[in-house]
Design brief:
Number of helices: 11
Largest sheet: 9 strands, mixed
Number of strands: 15
Number of domains: 2
Shape: globular
Order of helices and strands: EHEHEHEHEHEHEHEEEEEEEHHEHH
Distance between the termini: 56 Å
CATH architecture of the largest domain: 2-Layer Sandwich
Strand order of the largest sheet: 14-13-12-11-7-10-9-8-15
CATH topology of the largest domain: Dihydrodipicolinate Reductase, domain 2
Helix content: 25-40%
Radius of gyration: 20 Å
Oligomer: single chain
Structural class: alpha/beta
Amino acid sequence: MSTPYRVLVVGLGKRGLHHAAAFHANPRFTVAGICDIDATRLSAAAAKLGQPQHDTDAARLARAVRPDIFCFCTLPSLRTDLIRLGIESGARLIAFEKPVALSSAEGMVVKSLLERAGTKAVVSHQHRYGVHYRKVRELIASGALGRVHTVYGTASGWMTHMLSHLIDYMRWYNDEAPAAWVMAQAAGRGKLADLHPSPDYLGGFIQFANGVRGVVECGAGAPDVPEVGYWWRKCRIGAQGTDGFAEVLTGGGWRAVTKQGVSGGEGCMNYDLDMPPYIDQMADWLDDDRKVHPCNFAAAHAGFEIMMALCRSVVEGGQVALPLTQGADELAALRQKLPDRKVLLSCAENAKEYLP
């Protein structure tokens, strides 16, 4: 076996610990360093991860560790600086949480930095490893739905938490086809003040270059997913074709109706099951450039541009063409555009998150 890849993990909240634990459990990696601004949290994590080097200063630790993989799981406001730090550390691969950035302008900077450095990057759209997500993909790929004409996604959570996931899996179910244009509307200013700033509700359409139509709704006005009890897992992603449909519920399995009949199965988002293959495929990509990670940055950035274009449509009105050619600060524009009135809810459960 080759020498394990050295990993530095920055940010040891819930998601950071998921990443660090998955790296630590895989013999293809060594967690060489961990960083968090909370010294107590840092010491507790070190005890669980074999006592790697640890420091509250990410730059100092990166210089000491010189990692092969620089992984950060921090608030979305810190993307660009940590991408730069990962590149400066000499890391061959940078792994980080969605969203890619908080504006198309910042996303273009991140993309340029990675391309100039030649650094591989992955973004944590790890739900796709769930057995229920993969079963829907297998049905679509088998031709059981006939010619796919519509892909869709809904989530009760707000945009910068959930829309990145919805779009990524819709694109996966549509063979990663590029988007040609989008059109959208939004409502509610409450979550624009959140650490994951977003309109309270956004709904829109995506026209893909292969003729498939995408429909997305995210936030307070998105339809309920009554089959799922846990609020954050009320997500529905699926595809409709000439011969049937198939869809996955993040917290409630999968189901399909095709010419072969009605079918379905279990499945639920589970970090213990979804993280190991997501982590393992980073080593595959570092071992062999041909084994591109399914959650690669290029795919994530394509989905991110769709999300930012939907925001632009809200602000500008009408259709927005893709790919975007100039950067903008879409969230700042939404703060100026959206009226200051309460969002209307799709179900009473949403009140606890969207109404004061």
